[in-house]
Amino acid sequence: MSWRRPKGPIIANNDGTFLINLTPDERGTLSGFVDQLESLLKADLSDERLKRLYPVAYHDDAEKDAEYQGYMRDELTQSRAAAIDTVRSMLTSEESVTTAQLVAFMTVLNNLRLVLGTLLDVGEDTDEDDFEEDHPLYGQYQLYGYLGWLLEWTIAAVSGQ
Asked: Which value, in Å, is the radius of gyration of the alpha carbons in the chain?
């Protein structure tokens, strides 16, 4: 008997495309977060919320790091903006999506998690028990978990699992 993953938010079609199986409310909520991510990417480069999106490359050499950031930031920002445009159109359509579109979705989900993880100060030893229901950031942590769950399904779909 072979194990089959149950149907989830990302369903592989037989023709190599994928169905994003989200409710209209989930799509609308994600669209709002995508809009916020886009606004953040246009914000001041020193915004702390961006530190995991544009990590320091040279910790011991500020001049080299500034040069690296100068080369890479525009390219990274452009690729993230393109992924956001792709995802925005995906979330407003019920049509199947291609692998390339699903990779854009994966990129945006990961970027959202990086920003949210920065705000929550999530680290390797952060545990879900760190945020109990009465914690003021409990809702944000639940969102972080939801985005991780959705990202896991997206990665599994792209990798054929």
From this structure: 17
